[in-house]
Amino acid sequence: MLSCSKTNIFPYFTGQPQPLSGIRIVLLGQKCSGKGMAGDMILFKRLFGTAFNTAQSKRNLPHATCMKHEGDFNGVKVLVVETPGWFSDSSPPDWIKEEVLQGVSMCSPGPHVFLLVVPIFRSFTEKDLKAMVEVLKPLSERVWRHCMVLFTWGDWLSDFPVENYIVREGKVLQELLEKCGNRYHVRNPNRSDNAAQVTELFQKIIDLVKQNKGFFTTKLKQNRKRPWTYKQQQFIEEEWNKREEELIGKVMKALSNEPEKSTVSSAAHSMDEFLIPYCKFDMIRN
């Protein structure tokens, strides 16, 4: 079993070895997209729930804020930040972008993956793509290297393959996937094997971490200014390769030991999920 909090696994982009304390995830998407349920699925607990509404009410805030929860996957620490959603029929307000930046800071030293939540029960439009790009714009183009599309409400597909769904949806959805390196995962609330779904997702995240040699950080440009000798750079690369192998071996070993069955309800319970009837009507209307 892997204990990430005690093991130095990945170097930081400066080349200095830093401990990988676990997997850090940021969830982004519109209202009704299923972010809260996805977060609960990943953590095997009903944590996000009505947290948005409760926090907003207690602090008398004008809008929702990011919510962070942590869990454990067979010894691997998992941190999930859910960012507030925006309405599908309007452009994301500036405070949404600020909250996304806040969500990144809550994943210090940086998130390993941004899961862009896309509900299958409604078409993904040009306006939706522009909104997603706008929300991520303050993080620079580099952020797309760390993005993955998470399709929710996968039960709407029935036995229809997700690849066929992507083709049927057309160029807009395909453009989003291309920006994410064609990385995606489907969350099906009707499947009883929740642990298997999370295992598959974590395997894809680990592949992404290996490809990027670390997590997303806004400090990359500053770190690149630090000079390194050839021998130092060679040592850094050797350490990267060594710790990549250690990361993959240990985390995959943890992933092979499935946790107990999830007790998470498939019912909608996040602030963004309170508007599901509206969303279904919106789908029919469009």
Mean pLDDT: 77
Tally the structural domains.
1
* Helix run count: 10
Which parts are unreliable, with pLDDT below 50 for 5 consecutive residues or more? 1-20, 51-59, 220-226, 262-269, 273-286
Order of helices and strands: EEEHHEEHEHEHHEHHHH
Going by CATH, what is the homologous superfamily? P-loop containing nucleotide triphosphate hydrolases
Strand content: 5-15%
Structure description:
Strand 1 and strand 2 form a beta hairpin. It contains ten helices and eight strands. 41% of the residues lie in helices and 14% in strands. The chain has a single domain, classed as P-loop containing nucleotide triphosphate hydrolases (Rossmann fold, 3-Layer(aba) Sandwich). The chain is of the alpha/beta class and 286 residues long. The strands form two sheets. It has a six-stranded mixed sheet with strand order 4-5-3-6-7-8, sandwiched between helices. Strands 1-2 form a two-stranded antiparallel sheet.
Explain the layout of strands and helices.
Layout: E1 10-11, E2 17-18, E3 23-28, H1 35-43, H2 51-58, E4 67-73, E5 76-82, H3 94-105, E6 113-119, H4 126-136, E7 147-152, H5 162-169, H6 171-179, E8 184-186, H7 194-212, H8 220-224, H9 230-256, H10 276-285
Parallel strand pairs: 3-5, 3-6, 6-7, 7-8
Antiparallel strand pairs: 1-2, 4-5
Helix pairs in contact: 7-9
Task: Provide a compact summary of the structure.
With about 290 residues, the protein is of the alpha/beta class. It is built from 10 helices and 8 strands.
